[in-house]
């Protein structure tokens, strides 16, 4: 009895925190269910094993474990009380999960509600007819165990298990805009003809009607950034899917970083004059294209697309990120000057799409169909379970993210291998299925372009997507960075008119590893990853890419270091250290500042190899990245000389002799009358 009273008291506290004791519920109310959870391993033989209190988002892989043997892929059970209040009577109730990795089985009062396979898209279940008055027990059984019917089956990253994105309870009237259609907003803003003169759009709304179809109507308004109505439509409801053509005269176009202008689309479902439900979506109106010879165009003007691939992983949280984590990443991306981002290798959480909309960052977003690495090296198996999961992933991605103007490219797959007669195994042929997925993308959304990333002969993939791009690491694995020029020129000339881009390039670095003079060697399997090698690799690649506007996008691998159980290289096993920012986001590596000097017009000056503090060789080059007109070098307050940067915004003083002991390195440059400087200290022991 005491235990029951304690549980009820705890439930009341949790529900009060969630706000579920509100006296009145508006036509649609969304309650957070992030608090009040507890979890434990479901494989335990001790049924009395204690639960551990947790807050969502949560993953059991948040704590980094060095190496590959203790990467945990298992099953856990999460549970929490769910109380149906008096105000919820006569309403419809939906459980909405933004992401559970990878397989989720949901139970209410020990009865099955539903199952979802896939860890990076949202899902929604209605519980109206299963929930009882008062307290209910909500359970979610979660597994990130390896399965061939859940993507990804391969890949060079960790699949973090848990309810790693927020979850909610949605309460609506009996007639509502459906949250069940692939867990989407239920409202899709089709951009049919966009120009500076007019924006012709078609707002498609999916309804879920339990009471009646007669007498209902949809009122839709589009308002500008000043909250002024620029278009409106009111139609009667005669079907569960309603389409409303609308026109905005002389729209302000969403123009990337130049002007990421957003409109607000509000769709209201009415019974007479009574509001029954409302959905609000932000969007921007734009048109774009990619030319085989000239590259990417936004609203008719060339836009040089460059930026990072980004994994959704941060130190101490793994993929269970908080709002401040997304904001921090976006601020760093903006600081670099990037214009685009590839969200690798799965759909990311909603905040990153919102921030990209708001800041004008062009996105490539993709499903988790990837290889190589892991159990299934090729990344594809020709089974119905695998293919059904990929088909579902495409539909969920497109419908859930449909209204984001930042998304220009739907990604089909990454590094799926094809049997080429050069390997000892014969892989299942992925090409027919890749073409099928391309068709699904285009059937849902013909306004955007499809893309895929390859690391093998592109001839296999020509005709599988609108665009093709390469994961190619010149200067890191084998070939020197200057080889990129000929390689991509050859790819362009043999692509049958399909635009060619760079989906990944780069190299690894530890901020604690340094070398001078720099030895040119393949470091991919080495545990010594000097920061200077990464910087040199990026400089060489960008010199090639910057001269080739036909490359429709150039994406660095990768924004930040991240765990990968299969890696045994660099300073720390179990890590991919190709990030230009450290896993904890505290340190920007030298290569980050190379791109900042070239991409961001904000005046800057930066000394490289600044963390190479203890030096045995008294003779060294001193390299500075700057977008100023000239830079002056001082060592221990002695003026060494003034130089102008080259076309890659580099200044290099060669064969500089350091003093024995402390050397204070200072560089200065002027931006008009403003003096900019950077300083670091080195110690020469000889």
From TrEMBL:
Taxonomic superkingdom: Bacteria
Every Glycoside hydrolase family 2 catalytic domain range: 293-596
Signal peptide: 1-22
UniProt entry keywords in alphabetical sequence: Glycosidase, Hydrolase, Signal
Domain Glycosyl hydrolases family 2 sugar binding: 51-170
One GO molecular-function entry: hydrolase activity, hydrolyzing O-glycosyl compounds
Domain DUF4982, residue spans: 619-675
Keyword Lyase carried by entry: no
Name of a matching Pfam family: Glyco_hydro_2
GO biological process entries: carbohydrate metabolic process
Residue span, Glycoside hydrolase family 2 immunoglobulin-like beta-sandwich domain: 187-286
Family: Belongs to the glycosyl hydrolase 2 family.
Record PANTHER family: BETA-GALACTOSIDASE (PTHR42732), BETA-MANNOSIDASE (PTHR42732:SF1)
Protein name: Beta-galactosidase
Source organism per UniProt: Bacteroides ovatus
